[in-house]
Amino acid sequence: MKLKLNNALAGWLMVSPLMLVLLIFLVLPILMILIVSFWRATEYSIIPDFVFENYEFLFGSPVTYTVFINTFKYAILTWTFTFLIGFTVAFFLAFHVRSLTWQVVCFLLCTIPFWTSNIIRMISWIPFLGRNGIANSALISWGVIDEPVEWLLFSDFSVVLAFVHIYTLFMVVPIFNTMMRIDRSLIEAARDAGASGAQILWNVILPLTKPGIMIGTIFVVTLVMGDFFTVRVMSGSQSANVGRLISNDISLLQYPSASATAIVLLLTVLIVIGILLRFVDIRKEL
Amino acid sequence: MEPRTRSFYFLACFFGLFLIFLYGPTITIGILSFQGEMGGLTFPMQGVSLHWFFDLFEEQAVGDIWGSFRRSITLGFMVMVTTIVVSVMGGLAFRKKFPGSTILFYLIVTALVIPSILISLGVGLMFSQTGFEVHWSTSGFGSQLTWTLPFGLLIMFAVFNRFDKSYEEAARDQGATPWQTIRFVVLPIIAPSLIGVALFGFTLSYDEFARTLLTAGSNNTLPLEIYGMTTNVTSPVLYALGTLTTVFSLIIISIFLLVALRIAKTKARAGSDAGKGLL
């Protein structure tokens, strides 16, 4: 009994700094947003109150629904591409690169951009996609098109492209991690039993990689749903997602309205995560 | 060894294209930052010059770049050290179940998946309504920790899931105190992964802007400065700054990787297999 209590105390003592940080900078801020979402705002100040007008306005406005649909659209499109690319890259690294050194080198090549600035990586697309950008000039010189295409930059295309560029890594790493732990004798057994390469991929590797795919999915979906900056820069302020709705309200100092939107966004994200977590036990997969 | 199949070459090409996709744009702005004085934001190059890099050193052209750079580095190191210490302690604690560990685990997951702008908004509101002033070294520091700590902890969980407990038992059997076991057995074994935690802690902080947007106060960090520049600077000076900060990131990354490599080599030379299979 005493030992158990000692263990609990030791555990709590060790996680106390962690708990402190999460309490002050995660739990309390969420509570604060929840409280402020019931406040009222004038043009220049916010007033403590308990009214539902922010939520009523939010759910009463058709813009909200468009913006939420847009957010899901970006999430689904980005997920599809990051999954296809991420799975293929991870599959290549895990099963086709044979020496460990090369595996490490290729893996690092994939991860290094993650440790550099996202904003800069986003801006880097502008000289590529612009009206006089590299993509357009190349397409014209190859004779594919006669006039510069306008939809390359400042469109849904460029938004999703930037998302895929930044977040594919979040798919590659967890999928690669699970693939590396697949027992190679299973694949040999499948081959001995007469399975073709495609069958091995579909019936052996894909099911065993599911936990990694789920973790990658959680990362990509939440990052895209919570984004506000990529959409602003890459759509040239022409499209909006929920994050931009919030950041617009913030820049107009409409904190109660921003808070209400933030609470709805948080609930949406948590519901999506809740559904995804039913398919995977994260703690077991690390 | 089996001969390479056709799918190998196909996948290798795919991987090559993926790398071009990853690095192409960054290399492009690297080249464009040497744009001549009359040149614009895209090709063709109007000559080659260092004009835009010199522009960065003139205060009035771009604002307080160097001040924000200094702040970002300081903040990066603060976050890095805190992330290492807190993650190791958390990782050690989570090896045993303790009351509340499940809730805490879900809080960590929440910190990871919560949209960054909520942290910014919530912390900003909390500070302003309670009369505290937001500052990069207090509210900004804490907000960034909600992003770096989950990564640090995930790495520590992964490390301790693969940790061979018999090393500790051996130490205990030889009469080591719990502190001695951690200091002389556990920490040296997990040292290489701590380099990883440090790398994540520093770089994620150095590049973070969504969580510091409303929590940094009147003195910007570098990403916030760049964030501001994207809306009102339309000359290659933006590319020059982008190139410089990317080069700086790459230097930091190589330092961390070299240290990790050195540790691995030293271990191999000492003939110990401690830490094998950890990274």
Structure characterization notes:
The complex is a heterodimer of chains A (286) and B (279). Chain A is mainly α. Chain A is built from 14 helices and 2 strands. In chain A, helix 1 (2-36) packs across helix 13 and helix 10 runs antiparallel to helix 13. The mean pLDDT of chain A is 88. Chain B is built from 11 helices and no strands. Chain B has helices spanning 6-32, 51-56, 59-62, 65-93, 101-113, 116-129, 136-161, 166-173, 178-207, 222-232, 237-269. In chain B, helix 5 packs across helix 7. The mean pLDDT of chain B is 85. Classes of the chains: A mainly alpha (286), B mainly alpha (279). At the A-B interface, helix 1, helix 3, helix 4, helix 5 and helix 6 of A face helix 1, helix 4, helix 5, helix 6 and helix 7 of B.
Brief synopsis:
The complex is a heterodimer of chains A (286) and B (279). Chain A is mainly alpha-helical and 286 residues long. In chain A, 75% of the residues lie in helices and 1% in strands.
SSE blueprint:
The complex is a heterodimer of chains A (286) and B (279).
Chain A: H1 2-36, E1 40-41, E2 46-47, H2 53-60, H3 62-96, H4 100-111, H5 118-123, H6 126-129, H7 134-141, H8 156-180, H9 184-192, H10 197-226, H11 229-234, H12 242-251, H13 255-277, H14 282-285
Antiparallel strand pairs in A: 1-2
Helix pairs in contact in A: 1-13, 2-13, 3-8, 3-10, 8-10, 9-10, 10-13, 12-13
Chain B: H1 6-32, H2 51-56, H3 59-62, H4 65-93, H5 101-113, H6 116-129, H7 136-161, H8 166-173, H9 178-207, H10 222-232, H11 237-269
Helix pairs in contact in B: 1-11, 4-7, 4-9, 4-10, 5-7, 6-7, 7-9, 8-9, 9-11
